[in-house]
Write a structure and sequence with these properties.
Length: 455
């Protein structure tokens, strides 16, 4: 086990007097159960229920009365109801949808109990008669391990302490960049990170990657409505690792003969399982961020390490010094997106990018993020140099002067000019700091960029 950032969110939840039952979202194997078990050590009493087990699911089917249900749970697990500091963890809650509906009664009638549910494919398993209790439940998302979690697992305490300093000390750059390339190679699946930290053997990871993909196929295809969709899901769940990082079309996805509608349903099923993200662009340069669902989405998969493995890119990543030759730079862009997602625990905070589609001038900025009343563009470059034409076009359309480039170089701020002579400040952020993008944007905007330009 290694420390996870979600622990801080769980501690905040416990300390909130107005807390509600908590549903932890996330794909299988990202560490939801382990995180709650670690969190449970801060309680006087812990009740663990796995609804894949018939004996644990039975009380939720047998009792409509919440008092009888709680009485049965404490009795069956031989726990003391008089102990107030009790955490009840309902794992694999999607296996018994009625349990989700009952969460509202924990909130309304037994607020003294701490209740967490966890599961995947929640939207898929809910039928029309069972609804998630709106306003009675809170949500957090658990994602693959981030770079700073990877540093902790690897025992790199000095590097981790430097990572947490804003702004970073220059002398930490080379070591953090080297460690980040290892992280970009293996990814953030907790089982992979833990095994590599203990054994430092890349070859031994193959079996784990393979077992992960098999478990995802077996899990997701259970929710296909017919045999045809099962076959399409099976195709898509492997094809996504080849198409990752690109803007995709549903028709013929993954070099197949499948149609737009069937592929769309399959990919949305994978998205519900949080194995992929369909990232739609915005054409606007102001808040709020409004995705244009008529345009082609960009495909983000759960984990860059799995992408490397199944696309056969691990040797390329291992030998790269700046990720420029790997998958045409898409690995750098993809791992930055993964880090941004890892820093966000809210269900509805995803990724967004910007496009300008005009016949004579097509432009695309890799990511856009909200900061106060501004939409900040974030361009990812896999080399220390590279043109910023799309970034210039974006900045010509906004009334602020702040932009970000994630790249393999040192942390610094530049003052640059668009072709239309607009001056703006560019935060050059080492891409190993992508997890801390929000903190660095705050530092950047609230500092005096003019005084530190070029430093």
């Amino acid at each position: 086990m290694f420390s996870r950032n979600i622990q801080h969110q769980l501690k905040n939840w416990k300390g909130n007097p107005d807390r509600k039952p908590l549903l932890l979202r996330g794909a299988r194997q990202v560490g939801k159960t382990t995180a709650v078990r670690l969190f449970a050590e801060s309680f006087d009493q812990f009740i663990y229920l796995n609804l894949e087990k018939p004996e644990d699911a039975k009380p939720f089917r047998d009792f409509d009365n919440i008092e009888k249900l709680i009485e049965a749970l404490f009795f069956l697990k031989d726990k003391d109801r008089s102990i107030k500091d009790t955490l009840i963890f309902i794992d694999e809650i999607q296996e018994e949808p009625r349990a989700i509906g009952l969460l509202r009664y924990f909130y309304e009638e037994f607020p003294d109990l701490y209740v967490i549910g966890a599961g995947s494919l929640l939207e898929t398993v809910l039928d029309e008669s069972v609804n998630i209790p709106v306003g009675r439940v809170e949500y957090l998302v658990v994602r693959p391990a981030s770079f700073n979690e990877f540093l902790g697992a690897m025992g790199e305490s000095a590097a981790a302490s430097q990572f947490d300093i804003v702004p970073l000390n220059d002398f930490a750059h080379d070591k953090l960049l080297q460690l980040f390339h290892t992280y970009a190679l293996i990814g953030g699946m907790p089982q992979i990170v833990r095994h590599y930290a203990e054994n430092r053997d890349l070859g031994a990871l193959t079996r784990i990657y393979e077992s992960l993909i098999v478990s995802y196929i077996n899990d997701v295809e259970k929710y296909a409505r017919n045999a045809t969709l099962t076959q399409i899901i099976r195709h898509c769940i492997t094809a996504v690792y080849i198409e990752a990082g690109s803007r995709i079309k549903f028709q013929g996805f993954g070099n197949s003969l499948y149609g737009r509608r069937e592929v769309g349903e399959a990919l949305r099923t994978l998205e519900k399982a949080m194995l992929i993200h369909l990232v739609y662009p915005t054409v606007h340069t102001e808040l709020p961020i409004r995705p244009d669902l008529k345009k082609s989405p960009r495909l983000q998969v759960l984990d860059t390490g799995m992408l490397n493995h199944f696309a056969g890119l691990q040797k390329s990543v291992l030998g790269a010094t700046d990720l420029e030759v790997v998958y045409k730079g898409m690995i750098a862009e993809h791992i930055v997106g993964q880090e941004i997602l890892a820093s966000r625990f809210e269900v509805l905070r995803g990724l967004s990018f910007w496009v300008r589609d005009k016949a004579a001038s097509t432009a695309e900025v890799d990511y856009v993020v909200a900061y106060e009343d501004m939409l900040i563009p974030v361009e990812v470059k896999s080399t220390p140099t590279g043109a910023l034409r799309s970034l210039h076009l974006f900045m010509d359309h906004v009334d602020h002067r702040f932009a970000v480039r994630c790249y393999p170089g040192q942390l610094r701020i530049d003052k640059i000019q668009t072709q239309n002579s607009k001056e703006y400040f560019l935060l050059n952020l080492p891409y190993y700091l992508s997890f801390k993008l929000d903190a660095y944007i705050e530092w950047f905007v609230n500092s005096d960029p003019e005084s530190v330009t070029g430093k």
